[in-house]
Amino acid sequence: MSTELKGKTAIVTGASRGIGKALACTAASLGINLVVGARNFDPLKEAADEIAKQFKVKVEPVACDVTKLEDLENLVKVAKDKFGKVDILINCAGVSSQYQFNEQPIEDFEKLAHTNYLGYVRLIRLVINDMMKQKYGAIINIVSGSTLVDPVPRSFIVYSSLKVGLRAFSKGLFWELRDHGIKVTSILPGVTDTDLTGKLKNITSDTSRLMGTQAIEDAVRFALTVPANVCPLEISVINQQTPWTAPVIPFKQSHPGK
Ligand SMILES: NC(=O)c1ccc[n+]([C@@H]2O[C@H](COP(=O)([O-])OP(=O)(O)OC[C@H]3O[C@@H](n4cnc5c(N)ncnc54)[C@H](OP(=O)(O)O)[C@@H]3O)[C@@H](O)[C@H]2O)c1
Hints:
Elements: E1 9-13, H1 18-29, E2 33-38, H2 41-55, E3 59-63, H3 69-83, E4 88-91, H4 107-134, E5 137-142, H5 157-177, E6 182-189, H6 200-203, H7 214-225, E7 234-237
The structure holds NADP nicotinamide-adenine-dinucleotide phosphate.
NADP nicotinamide-adenine-dinucleotide phosphate is lined by residues 13-20, 37-40, 64-67, 92-95, 115-116, 142, 144-145, 189, 191-192, 194-197.
């Protein structure tokens, strides 16, 4: 992929707030035009207007639920109609759910799988053939630092195991596409202070331990600007200190013998 990014087009999902919005700003700061997606249009439009004004790029907001195939198709269609092509995809839309497994609502599984795994994979499938034809493209998947732990963290196993699957998929995709000029990078963020982790302030007595989005933005800027013949396959940016100073979810388990 050319390292000249000015005027290229990126789709960023989950761009109305949190990590996705921060990464939309990172891409915009490199001169990349954007199509941004999230379910709720008003905050998305507000973010899009703010980014366009600050970075002097074109930013098109599209209401999109990544669990719905037709919404993903529309997102790609808007990008192609408006800008002619998709050069970069930043897959970030995600939801969290922390429960002890036996107490986790059954509806959660489908929502997590459709948002955090299938939403990513389907959107990649919708842009990948054009990227192969144009012989360049960059796919950035926001995975999770929880995939670095084996076994995955308790009270977080459905979310984390889907992210493990996403991480495995991303690596496999790179090997399949490396000779087509397409980069695939997984970002593994630590516990980051966003709405997704809204209760963080209740579980730390030391807010300086909470990570902001800056290091994730730096990682994505690095991934997008390395020389064309290099691909950063995975970048982990993890909290220097354990972020929680109180239990995240008290884990209830009695010894089977008792
Ligand atoms: N925060 C962390 O500690 C952390 C750590 C590791 C990995 N991550 C990952 O980073 C990503 C972003 O997390 P965040 O902390 O920035 O979350 P956030 O602040 O809650 O933002 C989530 C974004 O995704 C959008 N979204 C949620 N469900 C969607 C759907 N079905 N379709 C389209 N958009 C949807 C939201 O907008 P709408 O609600 O309007 O749709 C919002 O823009 C997620 O994939 C998460 O797993 C986060």
